[in-house]
Amino acid sequence: MGLFLTLQLLRPLGAATAAVVVAPPPPALIVFGDSTADTGNNNFIQTLLRANYTPYGRDFPPGGVATGRFSNGRLAADFVSQALGLPRSVPPYLDPAHSILRLASAVSFASAGSGLDDITAQIFSAVTLTQQIEHFKEYRERLRRAVGGAAAADVVARALYLISAGAGDFLGNYLLFPLRRYRFTLPEYEAHLVGAAEAAVRAVHALGGARRVRLPGLPPLGCLPLRRALNLAAPGDCDRRLNAVARRFNRRLSAMAARLARELPGGAEVVYVDVYRVLAEVIERPWAYGFEDSVRGCCGTGWVETGVLCGLDSALTCQDADKYVFFDAVHLSQKAYKIIADAIVHAAAS
């Protein structure tokens, strides 16, 4: 069943019947972002941030294959696509094996290591958000040549857009390297990132798209296993300072989304998704969602291993990743991503 339905509002017997028509299901899902949304683009660029090796993808259907997704299986974008009646898995744009017709109903431009700040991607040799939008321009032109101008314009205009990024800007950039700290205070950097997210939405909207946008906020950054391990003040506990940063950023992002929904022409629907609230609840009460461990990751010790460290022969993984909220020390398990996807699908415009 599609996300958007045509509803009938029936008046009492004998009265006129009024029909309210809601937009039909989107014909495509178009994704931008970082490792939370990269379905394999980094496999095709020169970067160390790849997940095309075991144990990543060990539960990816069918049979388990390392696709480049930083999880044991599918990502939130894949589940969103399936819920919309689109492909069960979102193909990466940079994979030459996929024709433009294969990409017409679902495509990810996301790159692990990227962020809202282009400098974040440059640090990790990832595809910047600016370049992802350039790839979208190329995609739009390729689609036009394949299916015609009117059909391509319809896909681009009515697609659902997902922009999933931001965590790496704090964890892999601002808090790790001094470059941005010399220029911005932390609140200034938060505002800078929200401005970058706004600019991205406006840029895609100007290209004929971004009329339906979902902007997931940051998760509880301080509760990632890696950040718990680095919390010297209270080892093993969530880092309250980082969680406060995430909440403050999310408030800014939410306000921006609401303002853009009012300002963009054509009745744009720009919706903030409260990932923080959803994941904080799962972490606090894992048993209520079928998990046994919401503190450590499935890979290795569960505290520090991610990326190549998870791929080492000595980095054992748990037997059942569905029991873990996190698959590695930074990224969620497939089961947890499904919960995030449900929040994205059911997020509604205010």
Automatic annotation (TrEMBL):
**What Gene3D superfamilies does the record point to?**
SGNH hydrolase (3.40.50.1110)
- Pfam families for this protein: Lipase_GDSL (PF00657)
Q: Which keywords does this chain's UniProt record carry?
A: Signal
Give a GO molecular function annotation for the protein.
Answer: hydrolase activity, acting on ester bonds
Please indicate if the UniProt record lists Signal as a keyword. Answer: yes
Establish whether keyword Ubl conjugation is in the entry: no
- Entry-linked InterPro entries: GDSL, GDSL_lipolytic_enzyme, SGNH_hydro_sf, SGNH_plant_lipase-like
Signal peptide bounds: 1-18
Q: What protein family does this chain belong to? A: Belongs to the 'GDSL' lipolytic enzyme family.
Q: What is this protein called?
A: GDSL esterase/lipase
